[in-house]
Amino acid sequence: MPSRDFKRTDRVGAELRRELGTLVHAAVRDHGLPSCSVSDVEVTRDLDWATVWVTALLPEQSRETVKALNELAVEFRRSLSRQMRLRRVPELRFKYDDSVDKGERIEHLLRKDREVDGT
């Protein structure tokens, strides 16, 4: 029997990320939400919950964006159930991914440090 290099949760998460990326993009356009994109999806082992990590173009609007996406989660889930071949689509929980913001802040501090040193 061949060994599996990755888990089912990883495959489901990758498929959800692709499908939700399209759905979130359409929701931003249709509902006038602040611009955002899906950065990652983490699925629990029992496939009951999926945490969807999103990044916003304007970080100060992240709270508003995540709140709106959580309100649309039921619609997203219904749409996913029609598109994907899963017995049960996980419930969606949207959270803001601040790793990009932290990376930009670190880069800014490093640039500032170089300017002080004169290099």
UniProtKB/TrEMBL annotation:
Signal sequence, renumbered to the chain: none
Similarity comment: family membership: Belongs to the RbfA family.
Subunit organization: Monomer. Binds 30S ribosomal subunits, but not 50S ribosomal subunits or 70S ribosomes.
Keywords annotated in UniProt: Cytoplasm, Ribosome biogenesis
Gene3D superfamilies: 3.30.300.20
UniProt function note: One of several proteins that assist in the late maturation steps of the functional core of the 30S ribosomal subunit. Associates with free 30S ribosomal subunits (but not with 30S subunits that are part of 70S ribosomes or polysomes). Required for efficient processing of 16S rRNA. May interact with the 5'-terminal helix region of 16S rRNA.
NCBIfam families: rbfA
Name the record gives this protein: Ribosome-binding factor A
Subcellular location(s) of the protein: Cytoplasm
